[in-house]
Structure formats: C-alpha cells, structure tokens
Amino acid sequence: MAKILAVDDSASMRGMVAFTLRGAGHEVTEAENGQLALDVARGGSFDLVLADVNMPVLDGIAMVREMRAMDSYKGVPILMLTTESHTDKKMEGKAAGATGWLVKPFDPEQLLATVKRVLG
Amino acid sequence: MVNAALAQFQQVFIEESLEGLDTMESSLLALDDGGDAELVHTIFRAAHSIKGGAATFGFPEMSSFTHEAESLLDEVRGGKRAIDGGIVELLLRTVDCLRGMFARARAGEPLNDAVAEGLRGELAAAMGRGAAAGGVQARREVDQADAWTIRFRPHPGMLAGGNDPLRLIRELAGLGELAVTAELDRLPALDRLDPAECHLGWTIELAGPAKRADIAAVFDWVEGECELAIEPKHVVAAAAAASAAPAAAPVADVAAARAQRETSAESSTVRVAIDKIDGLINLVGELVITQSMLDTFRDGVDASRLALLEQGLAQLARHTRELQESVMGIRMLPIASVFNRFPRMVRDISQKLGKQVRLELVGEHTELDKTVLEKIGDPLVHLVRNAIDHGLELPAQRRAAGKGDTGTLRLEASHRGGNIVVEVSDDGAGLNREAIVAKAVQRGLIASGEGLGDEAVADLIFQPGFSTAAVTTDLSGRGVGMDVVRRNVADLGGSVTIRSTSGKGSVFTITLPLTLAIIDGLTAAVGEERYIVPLVSIVESIQLQREAIRTVVGGGELFRFRGDYLPVIRLHELFGCPDAVRAIDEGLLIVVEGEGARVGLFVDGLIGQQQAVVKSLEANYRRVSGVSGATILADGSVALIVDVAGMVRMQSRRKVA
Lengths: 120, 657
Fold this sequence. Notes:
The structure holds two protein chains of two kinds.
Chain A: E1 3-7, H1 11-23, E2 27-31, H2 34-43, E3 48-52, H3 60-68, E4 78-82, H4 87-96, E5 100-103, H5 108-119
Helix pairs in contact in A: 1-5, 2-3
Chain B: H1 4-32, H2 37-56, H3 60-77, H4 85-107, H5 114-126, E1 144-154, H6 165-173, E2 177-183, E3 201-211, H7 212-218, E4 226-235, H8 249-262, H9 274-295, H10 306-330, E5 332-334, H11 336-339, H12 342-353, E6 357-362, E7 367-369, H13 370-391, H14 395-400, E8 407-416, E9 419-426, H15 433-442, H16 454-460, H17 482-491, E10 495-501, E11 505-513, E12 518-526, E13 529-534, E14 538-542, E15 549-551, E16 557-561, E17 564-570, H18 571-574, E18 588-594, E19 597-603, E20 605-613, H19 617-620, E21 627-632, E22 638-642, H20 644-656
Parallel strand pairs in B: 6-8, 13-22, 17-19
Antiparallel strand pairs in B: 1-3, 1-4, 2-3, 5-7, 8-9, 9-11, 10-11, 12-13, 12-20, 14-18, 15-16, 16-17, 18-19, 21-22
C-alpha cells in the first residue's frame, strides 16, 4: 500500500480524504497548508501527494512548483483537488508540475479509483 | 450516495464552514473600513472552501449558491471589479443566508428558501447577467466506434509531471484489447539520452466498442503535454446523444436530506486544542507514577517510610487538583466566538439609528465554560443594543455635549479572581436619573426618588416591565429586557451591576463564575445538616450580640451592617432543621450579596472552605427554591448548596407580602 500526503486547509475535506485512503489500507500523512506539506515532504518520502489548490500560507500551485524543484519529488505523482471545473486552474497546476487533478465534489469511490489509476 | 465517511465529516464541514462564515463576515467588515487586498483573498478562500465542501458533503444547493458569491469575489480578486459598499452589503447578506442554510442543514430541512433564491438573483445581477445558467454545458458530441487507432506521442518533459506513459497505456487496456507499437524515430543518440525525458511514441490499436470520451479521459491529465490523435477504425451508427444525467439528481437530494436528519440537532461537541489534551495525558502519566508509589504501602506502613507516604499523598493531592483544572479547561472556550458577532450587529444597528459607533473588543481570548458561553450571548446582545439605542447619542447631540461625533462602545472580558468579568461600556449620555425615577414612580415601583442613592436608582432599570425610552424602537424592544438580562445572568450564577455617570456614559458589569460544574464554597453547619454557601456571594461572617437584632412588625429580624439594616434569614427555620442553634449570639451570621441586595444567613457555625462539585437537584429530584444544587461531602453525606440570589428574592417577596 502506498504512502500518501494529503494537503488541504479544510479539516473536513482532509479528514474525508485521509479516512477514505486509510480505509483502503494506505498510509496517510496530513498537512493543512502547502508550507507544512513541504516541511513534511522534506522529512519523508511519499508515493503520491493530493493537494487542494486554495490554501492559506502557501497555495497548492506554489507548493507543487516548490516540490518539483526537490530532487526526491521530481517524478512523484501530485494530484490537485480542485473545484474549478474550468480549465485555467487545471492548466496552471499542470504548468507548475502537477500530474493531474481530481475535481470536487468527489465521492470516496471516485477518490480511490483515481488514486488507483495514478499508482497503477 | 451517502456512506459512513460522508456522514462523519459532514458535521466537521458544517462547523468549519460556520467558522469560515465568521471569518468572511469580519473580513468584509474590515474591508468596508478600508482594509487591504489580502482580505479579499481571505474572503474568497472561505467562500471557495464552502463551495467545494458543500458539493462533496451532500449540499449541492449550497454549493451552487456559494458559487455565485465566489464568482463575484473572483472578479474583485482579479481586479475586474472594484469593491464598494453595495457589494459588501450584498456579500454580508449572503453570509447570513448561508448561516441559515447551515442551520437548516443541521435540522434536516430543505436548504433553499425565498431569501436564498432572491439573493442568488441579486448576485447574478451584480455580475451583470441574468439568473444563473445552472445547466450543464454541452459536451463534445459522443462518438462511438468498434475499434480505434490512437497515436500518442508524449513531449519529452511529460515525465516530470509524474505521468507515466505505461500507466496510461495500462488504463487504455481497461477499455478493450490493445496492440501497441512503439515509435522510436525521435530517439536521440545514446550519449545524448536523458533518462528523465520521454522520446518514445506509441501507436495503439484498440479493439472493442469504446466511446471517444472514455479514451480521451485517459489522456485528460496530459493534454498539452503530448501529441494525441484518436481516430475511429469502424464508425458505429451515431448513437443518440441522450443526456440522462439530470434524472438522477432528486434521488441524491432525498438521500442527503436523510443523512442530515440523522446528524441533526445542536452540536454537542467541543473542539479542544491539542496541547490541552497533551497536558492531560501528561498529568495522567504522573498520576499513574504516584499511584504505583503509593501502592508500595499496600503491605503496611512503618515509621521509617512515613515521610515518603506523606510526600506521596501530597503529590496525589496536587495531581488531582491539576487534573481537575485541566479537565475543566477542556470545556473552556475563548469568548471571541461571542464577541465576533458584535462588529456586524453594531454596524447594522448604528446605521439604522443614524449613530456613529466605534466598537472596541478587549480580552477576546478570555476563556469561559462552554455552557456559560452559550448562554451569555443573549444578555450581551441586549446590553449592546441598549447601549447603542439608549446610551450613545446622535452625532449632533454629541457635538452639543462637547464630544466627538463617534461614540465608543467597549466590550471587555477579563479574569478577576475566580470570576470572569465582562464589561459593556459606552461614552454616551449615561443613565437619566430624573427619567428613571419618574418612570418608576409612574409604574408604582417606588413612592418617590427622595433619598435613593444613585446605585438604587440605577437598579430600578432591572425591574420587570421597566422602560424609559420616550419612543420605543424595534431594536431594544419594549421594556422587556434588563430584568431578563439579570435573571439570565443569575441563572449562570453571576450578577449584573451598573455604574453610570451623567453625560459621561455607563458601564454594565457582568460577573460570572469560571465554571458551573464546580464552585468554591464555605461549608456551614445548621444542626445536623451541612450547607454550602458560594464564596463569591459572601461579604463577611460576623457574630452578633443579641442587642444588635431589631425585630420589626411581621416578625422579621434586622441587623445593622455598614450603615444599612439587613434582614436575617434563619436557615434552620427555612429548611426546618431541628437541634440547630437558635440564640443569635451563639451562632454566626454570614452576610451574603445577590442581585445587588444583601441579607444575613444565620447558621450554627462555619466548618471550612472547600470546592464542591455541583449536582443538579432538578435533574435528580425537583427544583427547590433557595437551593441551587447539592454536593457530596468528603464523608459521603449530601450537602445542599445555597442559592443566594434565590434567597434574596424570597426575602424581598416576603417583604412585599
């Protein structure tokens, strides 16, 4: 099972993501903004990062950009959790180095299916 | 679809959203006062979180409603629209409306109402367009075929985004049988090969009926990072592009509503800071160590180890006290959650009345028991409304009185001894002594104002049915109020007092106990019975000579105390205790104060001071006047806790009768 870093400033959203993934046997570490996620990422290794876009302190897009600059996170899949259904945020995320996105609202099954899809 | 995870986090979502709305509100108010651009981001983030969460946690109506507000905020954020008073006003009403939606979500009621519908239109109008489109955009036409040829050629940098071509090809395999051919034509020479880049391309033959959209979805994340061509090999007769999606929506609504009902009613959870819990765990750890140390005395104590035993018992006492304080601390929440509603309220009321008010909040981090916190809101709202409505003057009147146009209203919370003190003060006109006395005489509360001290006059406004406002407004009500404020505060074991200076303003002081669960009290003996008198209400304990007591008509006894005559309440008479001391000079008078009046409680004597855990009499027996609860003493016997305010009320009723 995979080690996953879940980043979201909303405790309910982060909690649901973490709960769902743990239920599927994954090891989940939570962070409540991009800056904390970077700190956690530096201290460990993850197979997948799931990050919200809009967060205080450091937003998801800036976080992806900084994470991609770290050697150990060059090829790690990073998914953006986004409510924007229009493409500009997705593209902004892609340009920063995100692997893909998961559009809110999502249900637990869809989350697991997407994670499975990324982890192969 | 509702499942366990959803229901579990729905509550968390509601709570954090209500906090988000508070943030939105205070930021909007700050913005109105000329705040900076960062505030717009804060407001946007809060709206955005609610929108995203609402859709995920089963509140689609709320999500689409918030979407309108978010779009408006997005334009402000992007500099496409200047923020003005009108937009702030509109967004403030949106915040109110969302609060209502969350309340209905908790109660399991339908979320939308006329207000929400109206606001949705206004938000859309503010965006310069008609009602929300709402519908799903037309998707690209559904194309179906029995077999496809897919040419997929990643750009060299695609791997850096974490997308592995192998994964995509595997995913395609889920749609049908694949025949994959690698294209090697762009492969550079070995010495120039960068392992982090992708130079391969693939031609994939997919056999089996599949939709173009399903195939395109596999490559969704690499759009713009690859060359992609999806071509049908055998075209199937164009399938009707029927959109069956909308039919599923109502079912989801019903399910979501049911889920809400299951988790309805007021929240009875407390959010606790992690360091408080860590502190508790730490204390329990120490308690365990002390316990195991004391356990070594199980086989008996000999003189040589007596000092150790004493030390252990002292530790146990300390840990128990600390543990008690920490556990009480879990119920303690900052008063900020109550204070935060006032900026908005003060703004609305002062605008309505044409007054200029500057609100100062001090000591917002002062912590109160959760129960006290929930019940102190209404009395405070009343005091604040009164202060703006009756206390603070109109700008012209202020100028005439030599004051600045803007009045100051100050809310201050602080710890004072074992109490929490909340003060509501204004620099308005102060209480109008003549008007109060005139009204009180008219109401038959007093015969005349002669000889009444300022304190006694101020106290008149707490009488039921008292109102002096020449014109009653829709804000401060119609004279129902101050008596209710005093009663509500008294129910919390607290008191309200006023200090007022004509022309300078008034200060309302609410004194509250730190917690309702434990009180500090003096244990008094009355015959065989023990009574606890709350320490906060005790003024002094005195022993009197027989001659100091005056008996008045009707059998009441009075004694002189600091220039006043106070009534004596003999607890042994009130509670019918046999074998109690009857002679005044053999017992003790405890002078207590409640609701601004003093009485002397006559008891046999004092036993000592102790903390009492309050057990409700109402919950276990029934309400008894003069008694606020019971507690269990160290020897296992039960002692009643004296309700001082109740006794004062009983005494004044007797006086009237």
